[in-house]
């Protein structure tokens, strides 16, 4: 039995930690890009449907599984799943729920470290007076570790190590003493920054400071429903992929956080609060910052073209230049708000990626929390080095494809089967409703048992096997091919360069 008897400090803290886990780069960088690339308003219907039939059921499954396993002192998916069925296979399936977190952390923490650096550069006015090309070039130089933007050699590496040290330190302070405290500061801060930027975005006026469109042009582009692409499977796959990534389902981190609950604590209302908070931040704030501002200055066509090179491209290559149009003081404030928002969104997610592996080491080997935190930081550093030094070679994409896409869907499918069919939905439903502070519509019994697994199978097959040239009217399966490209970034091959995922474009293309 483990000596790991930690618990959450308060209900508000738990919900904010779970919301912080979910809210991340997915909301601000990935969502707008996915939406634009999938035709703006055409994306939103499949997205909302995916939220209802995949997102919400998986949230309930993961919260319930986590709290269930936690009763037996388990805080990582191999043992949480092992407590739901004794067959050895589930322990091995559960290993996914540790490794995908660590592998995602390897590239996620790298992006997080860019936000720290960009906060300083915005504050100190590095971008002042640079033209659009120079701002874009700055990012390329930054990523090329051996060159320096500031005279500090290996700047990108230094910020990466700093960022990991910060994560390690917070994790070593514990759940209520570290993670929960950061969430209580970080989530409100990012919402305040987000509201400020969204206000700037929406009230942007054509003719002011060089803007060519009102802020509302971008919003209309996103929110005018377009039913024509509803029959397009690519749009559905992209929407399902976004729901997975943004809610952090299929990763093992929600189960881990939920395993620190007590047997009779509510999960139904807590899960819905955290899940809907993520959706608010994504749909309201995530769509009101990058898109209206960039379309305001650059126009729809140019932004569609730029999103072809990935969300990071727009965020790090283009936004600092657009903020410059607001004059030196406001641009510093906007830059710090934007990268500060990204930083808080990022760190509350990377902390969530650390906890499953640490829970495992603490439960099974009786490691102390600081020792486990240090192990996490070290492993992420080692795994992260290839992304830094071989960014060009697509190591980033490899991580994102295997850890950030394939493994999530496989894991989610298996855990949905375990929950409804092996553990049994009767018991499962009892777990979900035990201690519940809200009544969950009964239709969810049916959805969890049948709809969710079937849709997951469809998404998985669709992600791996697709028709040649994506011609879905070709129904001869022998003309289909195995597809080594993530759900996450499939539409990006329309864009510039050999980018496979949403990350890749940050590097390949020159935005000038
Ligand atoms: N959901 C986070 C986002 O939207 C990403 C994440 C992945 C968080 C894995 C935790 C674990 O950016
Ligand atoms: Na998210």
UniProtKB/TrEMBL annotation:
One of its GO terms (cellular component) is membrane. The keyword NADP does not apply. Keywords: Membrane, Transmembrane, Transmembrane helix, Transport. The chain crosses the membrane at residues 12-29, 41-61, 89-108, 152-170, 182-202, 235-260, 280-300, 329-352, 372-391, 403-425, 446-465. The keyword Membrane applies. It is found in: Membrane. Its main location: membrane. Coiled coil: none annotated. It is a multi-pass membrane protein. It comes from the Bacteria. This is Na+-dependent transporter, SNF family. It comes from Lentimicrobium saccharophilum. The chain holds residues 1 to 512 of 610 of the full protein.
